[in-house]
Design brief:
395 residues, alpha+beta, FAD/NAD(P)-binding domain, D-Amino Acid Oxidase, Chain A, domain 2, nine-stranded mixed sheet, six-stranded mixed sheet, 21 strands, globular
């Protein structure tokens, strides 16, 4: 291939464009919004994940461990704020210790620097934390992911890459002699190959290109609070609960950001629009599409009660949200937190109701489609880009 069109201007799409450019290909990047990193990347928790949660040998495990190093190196090289501060994963009940031990085993299998510590040792890092045991993970960090995207855009612009905002992919067809043609409304982009990094719309772009994707994107909104400035001292770094291994979300946690603010969350509720950052954001098309998908009903049958109901209740109740935080840091009260914002996770789901656990990348002739790249995709972006560039080169 000589030239490639990348659909999607989040961190994964921009990283792919940069990697392809470094390999000598001509690249065009299409982003439907008027700015880069407008959705998942721009509403990210800005945590550089270590890689302890993921099944050993999976894409997520391998790419997050390698990505933890490469994204930090990139940030330092190009002046993007980053801090490797470590984090605590805390068991607040004896019943959570087996799951904490499993995390410790996964960390060792994945090559993640982590060690089991006592409650007293945990309080040396976080004086206000409550736990019966904890895991200290040294390589977790905090970063400015939108800043990473800004650096990538500068590099791409300097390299002469064709960067197009306000350019949605409206139609895609195979070229008469190979390659693809992508209509944006203003123009038709002709290229030898296509890489779909459209995030929340990745399955729709795949269908536009003639692919029948093996999973459907179902949007979940994660809502955040933050500690009031005068209560930020309750948290020194990052405090996470032991996650429920049956769910794709890590649970409500506390994260000190680069500016010193402390974010709390997220919970997880079904969004009523693919870019639905509030309950009032509603799309009849998106809701109808979700309602018609059998996988959603099968998932609901399994998790709606009590898990899903608890998440919805917490969405509407500041008191419940604060209570979830108080399990980790008992000093946190309802009066200590204020609404901060939300993000939407593009979660791929199969027809049987199972959530796609790993990164999902599917290919067709002259095409690569990234169909599931939620967290830790931002951490892993440069590694995902290398993997995709290899596939493009092989194609």
């Amino acid at each position: 291939m000589r030239n490639v069109v990348v659909v999607g201007g989040g961190i994964v799409g921009l990283a792919v464009a940069w990697e392809l450019t470094r390999r000598g290909l001509d690249v065009t990047v299409l982003e439907k919004e008027p700015q880069w990193a407008a959705h998942q990347t721009g509403h990210n928790s800005n945590v550089v994940h270590a890689g302890l949660y993921y099944k050993p040998g999976s894409f997520k495990a391998r790419m997050s461990v390698a990505g933890n190093r490469s994204i930090v190196d990139f940030a330092r090289q190009y002046g993007v704020p980053v801090e490797v501060c470590g984090k605590l994963v805390v068991a607040t009940d004896e019943k959570e210790i087996p799951a904490l031990n499993t995390l410790a085993e996964r960390a060792e299998a994945n090559g993640v620097p982590a060690k089991k510590i006592s409650p007293a040792e945990a309080r040396e890092y976080e004086p206000e934390v409550a736990c019966v045991a904890a895991l200290r993970v040294e390589s977790t960090g905090i970063i400015d992911f939108p800043g990473v995207c800004q650096a990538l855009v500068r590099l791409l612009d300097e390299a002469g890459v064709d960067l197009r905002l306000n350019s949605p992919a409206l139609a895609i067809r195979a070229g008469s002699t190979g390659g693809v043609e992508v209509a944006t409304g203003e123009d038709v982009v002709v290229a030898d190959g296509l890489v779909n990094c459209a995030g929340l719309h990745s399955d729709r772009v795949a269908r536009l290109a003639g692919l029948t994707p093996s999973a459907k994107i179902v949007p979940f909104r994660g809502e955040y609070y933050e500690l009031k400035p005068e209560r930020r001292g309750l948290v020194k770094g990052l405090i996470y609960p032991v996650p429920d291994p049956t769910l794709p979300f890590l649970g409500v946690h506390l994260t000190r950001m680069l500016d010193g603010s402390v974010h709390a969350g997220p919970n997880a509720v079904l969004a009523l629009r693919r870019e639905g950052y509030r309950w009032g954001d509603f799309s009849a098309k998106d809701v109808a599409e979700v309602a018609a998908f059998p996988g959603v009903w099968r998932l609901a049958k399994k998790y709606a009660f009590p898990t899903g109901l608890d998440e919805v209740r917490r969405s509407f109740s500041k008191k419940r949200f604060a209570a979830s935080l108080a399990r980790l840091v008992p000093a946190v009260t309802e009066d200590d937190i204020v609404r901060h914002g939300s993000g939407v996770r593009a979660q791929a789901m199969r027809r049987d109701g199972s959530l796609v656990d790993d990164f999902l990348i599917e290919t067709a002739r002259d095409q690569v489609h990234v169909l599931n790249a939620p967290s830790p995709a931002a951490t892993s972006a440069l590694e995902i880009a290398r993997h995709i560039a290899d596939q493009v080169s092989e194609g």
